[in-house]
Amino acid sequence: MNNIISCNQFTRESLEKLLDLAKKIKENPNEYKNKLDGKIIAPIFFEPSTRTRLSFETAALRLGAKIIATENAQNSSTKKGESLQDTIRILAGYADCIVMRHNSDDSAEIAVSYSKVPIINAGSGKKEHPSQSLLDVFTIREKRGKIDGTKIAILGDLVYGRTIHSLLELLSLYDGIEVWGLSKEAFRLPEKYKKMLEDHNIKYHECAGFDEIPRDIDVLYHTRIQSERFDGDFGKEEFIINKALLSKFLQNTIVMHPLPRLDEISEDIDDDPRAVYFEQAHNGVPVRMAMYLTVMGYAE
Ligand code: NCD
User: Fold this and answer.
1) 7, 10, 14, 18 alpha-carbon torsion, rounded to 10°
2) What is the pTM of this model?
3) Of 55, 98, 156, 266, which sees the most CB atoms within 10 A?
């Protein structure tokens, strides 16, 4: 796999291979510290980012690679009107791998067609966020011991939330998945993703309230309303996970969120062992290390 731009590139086998490598890296990081000695990584972020950019940078440094980056693409020639393809052509002559986040849904495909070095998609518009969903399924597998049979509730912004779209894509590679969706009406899951689930024989239940989500659900996956991606004001999140709410679910239910959170998850559950969103974010480092090794041909 020379690029990772979409979750639909993965088979169950290639996904498991990457997750296994990330697990080995997490257990034994020192074994990997020189793997990318002498390599240069160029992260270019045309949209805000904290976790994704810094964990991609950490992952590169932990493998011994060096980084060239503008702090933010607004400081790059994009500000002068340079096209995405020209920026990519130039960076591909400097670096051995490009990590890119962009607000256009098609940006990753465009980047691949103009780059002679591997491209990793760090978020493309509302469409995809493969590195996030790889760390999400890594976390689910780590916590549950397996991904098959996962019962998951997706909450928040199911329209513009690219982490949701990519996660559903990866989960559809597994057996026995069942999904409950809970959001404000304006943010319900688009038909094309419902159809994708149906095509994989995955049952989707659209819910009107938390009481329609089973008590023994495995994962509550909340997301932020992506207000920067649409005009108009649809108000704040109505469905909040707090201590009182979480007490209605069993001990095996984990709470996930790609972060940043706004009001979706109350801080009063942060110390509950079922709240795994910080651990989830930390898993971004071994998973992104595994992504670099995969696209740069160093995966065993
Ligand atoms: C997500 C994103 O950028 O899509 N953040 C992240 O990468 N962890 C989710 C969000 O911004 O709400």
Assistant:
1) 0
2) 0.97
3) 156
Going from the C-alpha of 121 to that of each of 47, 110, 286, the distances in angstroms are 12, 11, 17
Cα of 79 from ligand 1 centre, angstroms? 23
Nearest atom, ligand 1, residue 52 CA: 7
For 59-76, the pLDDT digits (tens) are: 999 999 999 987 677 777
H/E element holding 280?
helix 277-282
Range of the domain at 146: 130-281
Ligand 1 center–CA 163 separation, angstroms: 7
Look up residue 181 and give its two tokens.
């969706």
Question: How many domains, the chain?
Answer: 2
Counting from 1 in the atom list of ligand 1, the atom nearest the Cα of 259 is: 8
For residues 117, 106, 13 and 168, what is the CA-based torsion angle, rounded to 10 degrees? Answer: 150
- In this structure, the answer to whether residues 137 and 104 fall within a common structural domain is no
- CA 278 – CA 26 distance, rounded (Å): 16
